Amino acid sequence: MEPLALLSQSKVLVVTGKGGTGKTTVCGVIANLAAQCGLHVLVLQVGEGPSDGALARPSQLARLFGQEAAIGWEATALAWVPNGGRVEARLLQPDVALVEYLHLHGMRRLSRRLVSSGALDVVATAVPGMPDLLVLGKVKQVERAAAARRPGAPDLIVLDAPAAGHAVRFLQSPHGLLDAVAGGPVRSQAEEVVSMLSDPARCQVVMVTLPEETPVTETIETAYLIEDRVGAHLGPVIVNGRLPRLELAGSLTPEAVRAVADRSGVVLSGPQLADLCAAGRLRARRQEAQAEQVARLGQSLALPQLELPFCFNASLGPPELGTLTQSLAQGIAGLSLAAP
Amino acid sequence: MTEPRVIVCAGPGGVGKTTASAALALQGAQRGLHACVVTIDPARRLASTLGVDGLGNEPHLVSSVGGGGQLWALMLDTQGTFDQLVRRYATSPGQAEAILRNRIYRNIAGALSGAQEYMAVEKLYELQEDGRFELIVVDTPPAQHALDFLEAPGRLVRLLDNRVFRLLMAPTRAGAHVLGLGAQLLLRTVAKVAGGQVVSDTVEFFGNFEGMEEGFRARAERANALLRSPQTSFVLVCSPRADAVEEALQLVPRLQSVGAPVRTIIVNRSYPRFANAPEAPSAPPPLGDLVANLRQLGQVAASEDAEVARLASALPGAKLCRVPLLAQEPSDLSALAEVASYLG
Ligand SMILES: Nc1ncnc2c1ncn2[C@@H]1O[C@H](COP(=O)(O)OP(=O)(O)OP(=O)(O)O)[C@@H](O)[C@H]1O
Ligand SMILES: Nc1ncnc2c1ncn2[C@@H]1O[C@H](COP(=O)(O)OP(=O)(O)OP(=O)(O)O)[C@@H](O)[C@H]1O
Ligand SMILES: [Mg+2]
Ligand SMILES: [Mg+2]
Predict the structure, then answer these.
(1) Could you tell me the distance, in angstroms and rounded to a whole number, from the CA of residue B336 to the centre of ligand 4?
(2) In sequence order, what DSSP letters do the residues of B102-139 get, joined into one string?
(3) Which residues of B touch A105 (CB under 8 A)?
(4) Which fold is adopted by the domain B5-161+220-270?
């Protein structure tokens, strides 16, 4: 399947997964691939805390694109591709979203005071799920602009969502509000968000996992919850950090390795010989454990899998972004064309 | 009774906070202490690692270690802990029931920001009062929330002090007719946005709290003091990766500024340092792949060392422990003991 075909199935891709599995990285990789296909992509990150302080955070996403920018409420450009594609990012904070919402609903005068007095905490307590709904409402607003092809609106929105456990609560917030709130703008906002989340032509959820036991287990559980409780369509699962396969099967004894080295004229010191074997055993056991988890994921979840390789660097930047983007493109090319 | 030592494990998401807190408690037990780990692990994996079916909201004896040490564990139940607190401070059983039944209260655990953190602190406070434990290790949710953890008791106090909250309490206290103009405007706004039902539920909910704020406030202040007392120390758990280190570096000065200095850093899941790879262009199998592997792992280890150095130099006085990446996820007590063996 062509990458563009997959990336144009829905306007919004919600990327979620257990903490630290690579959600933010994967958002960058998807956005980069989509930009290479000529799309204008907007990555939306969900800010959890109050807006002050968030701006000072150096952005991991920007570093991936080789930039030092901090990402805030206003769009920051991260990449331009000569074919017209580009990547932008924004950080959505619930309190800023509330102020904007109140402005748009003719309550301008009150909005600042409501936020600065800490009333958001009270409103959030009184109206459960309100901060999440404010963020999702903003996503929906951008999605509507994109669907209407308004000038400046993106072709694709990639949402860097909260970690898996919180993701279900986050995506479920509008459902909860429908139960709690009988009328008014909050209810209609919630209804509109629910219809966006449950329409595969508008929105898909992409789960990211590592090929390890705990993340795979959590992915399986979360996938069912997202389908049942949120009613969202699940796209391919991204299996991130897969070790590129080396042929390390068979005996890794020092004697056997020494024999091969002698035959091929490679000079090995004692520590090198010992560590070739020790490192080889670690790699072989991890490869094997990863293969087991990938198989288990496949048996438990009938979703296509896309693998991204582990990069041998503690700090990811443009070279790794390039490698990962290429792997994603190859992975998508290998998927058979199935309608959602 | 001497006061128990308290260790709080904080750090970015997915780096091994839950694993490290269990290992630290196990280490305490191995040293003869009665140790309890309070975990926040919705995946319930810790329970299986510890070899128990499930963990509840009360301490559960996991194992007795030689030398009189004991390892206990509990898994935080936010709603359950909140309910207990309401029962404790209600002025009558009727008041407790009214609050527990309120629709808004039923959502509070998930809705009030920092509720989970606050309840973790609450549980910690309860355990230290309990008297059975000499060491209590607390796991926390990921970094963005680590400060929530410290700020949680203060936030509840602030919420109770909040002008809006007071305004919402006012109608039941003094009758709606004396509500100030500001309060009326605010309630009308909330009603316009969220519907009138929400306002009446809210007023009822806060109204039911009448008489309980003092108890809540005093307890929150005592919990706050415990977090900042010398018996409590903070352990920063991190991975040797640039993004995690960056997040941890943001956290450190903020922890320090609120009186929670970090004395120990645990860098978890480090790639082991191996010898340099030999020159071996196109060696036959398995040598070729073994050399490639050594080179790749050497590359990660070197880049990880650079990140760890950055973290260490930001915390010059702190003790640094490195736990290697194990071939398999720690999934039983003996694997946890292996992790503990690296904790010095
Ligand atoms: N394929 C990969 N190879 C090597 N390192 C990776 C890979 N993918 C992600 N990482 C690294 O793993 C760490 C976690 O990734 P990332 O921050 O993208 O995850 P996340 O799910 O967004 O985390 P969080 O839950 O904290 O938001 C980062 O340091 C990132 O650089
Ligand atoms: N030294 C190690 N070697 C290999 N795997 C490890 C090691 N330490 C932890 N793990 C595994 O890494 C994963 C993350 O660990 P853990 O759940 O303790 O992290 P956490 O910081 O509590 O995550 P979260 O932020 O999601 O609560 C788990 O699957 C755990 O089994
Ligand atoms: Mg992230
Ligand atoms: Mg954890």
Answers:
(1) 15
(2) -HHHHTHHHHSTTHHHHHHHHHHHHHHHH-S-SEEEEE
(3) 192-193
(4) Rossmann fold (3.40.50)
